[in-house]
Design a protein that fits this description.
heterodimer; A: mainly alpha; 4 helices; 58% helix; 0% strand; B: 2 domains; two-stranded parallel sheet
């Protein structure tokens, strides 16, 4: 059983990518890509499915479900097809591995 | 730090989901569907500007001003908008008041709906299955884990938030705080007390 008691104050976002995916989603909602009730409906479906066989935590588990939801929506509406996301993800990985420590990481061609 | 290891001279590789988020950002930015500066502004807002201090001001005023309290209980969205607390995820807010007979708690069993303009972004435990599933089933046990034990005669009511309706709890005003000013009152109001997993602090 997860201990619910909060002793130290939580950071608002535990990982930078939690903040990034949150902001990305809010921004797309505000520009009319999807309504918030639509988002909640899709997201709660993904959470429920992922939580079937184990108890999800409110950190990485929660934001992994968030990311899966956004990827599904954007693949469906054509804004970010899955193959393109996979390719760019690998491009970013390569960029990190090829960038000396301390230098800022950029994709070639950006 | 491990990334200072001369065997790993490259930039520290972020975890897979972080790379996927960067991929989405790159694609959407290239298509003109998002503006990276706007994302930074959203993050800054919720990290630094909007948080439980907003809700605490609302609760302090409700304790201090019976007219405001009545207006808040009647139509919270209008009452808090008049104080300047409005925006994303605050379209329809409902305020519920704790009394000696009734303790209110808030959850979102579907995901993590929460009154952002008043409380900011929910804490990780609010988003966990452990809280979302159990607070409905065994609220007193969950309360005990937060260190709160209520008198037997106090009923517990759990409110389930949705994309349309967000709840804020007005905790009971602590004894001995009647003569405090608004800022001193607000300092007694914790985030958890406005979710119903805590009580307001006693004045020192």
């Amino acid at each position: 059983m997860t201990c619910l008691t909060a002793s130290a104050p939580d950071p608002v976002f535990r990982q930078p990518w939690h903040a990034q995916i949150f902001a990305l989603t809010v921004s797309l909602n505000e520009s009319g890509r999807f309504t918030w009730p639509d988002w909640v409906s899709r997201f709660s479906g993904v959470l429920a499915r992922r939580g079937l066989d184990r108890e999800l935590d409110g950190g990485d588990d929660y934001f992994n479900a968030w990311l899966e939801t956004l990827e599904l929506i954007l693949a469906e509406d054509g804004a970010a097809p899955q193959a393109e996301v996979d390719r760019l993800r690998d491009d970013w990985q390569r960029a990190y591995l090829n960038t000396p420590h301390g230098a800022s990481v950029r994709l070639s061609g950006l | 730090m491990p990334h200072d290891d001369p065997d790993h001279p490259h930039a520290l590789l972020p975890p897979d989901p972080a790379l996927r988020v960067k991929a989405l950002e790159t694609i959407l930015t290239r298509k003109g569907l998002i503006d990276p500066a706007a994302l930074d502004e959203i993050i800054d807002t919720y990290q630094n500007k909007i948080g439980p201090q907003n809700g605490a001001q609302v609760v302090a005023r409700a304790w201090h001003d019976p007219e405001f309290r009545a207006a808040l209980l009647q139509d919270a969205t209008v009452a808090v908008t008049d104080l300047g607390y409005f925006g994303r995820q605050g379209e329809h807010m409902v305020v519920v008041e704790n009394t000696p007979d009734l303790h209110n708690m808030v959850v979102c069993t579907l995901c993590s709906c929460y009154p952002w303009p008043l409380l900011g972004i929910p804490p990780a435990w609010y988003k966990s299955d452990a809280y979302r599933a159990r607070v409905v089933r065994e609220p007193r046990k969950v309360l005990a884990e937060f260190g709160v034990t209520l008198p037997e005669k106090t009923a517990v009511r759990v409110w389930d938030s949705t994309a349309e309706v967000r709840y804020l709890v007005i905790p009971m005003q602590p004894e001995g705080s009647k003569n405090l000013d608004l800022d001193a009152l607000a300092a007694l109001v914790t985030r958890d007390s406005m979710i119903g997993t805590g009580l307001a602090q006693e004045p020192s």
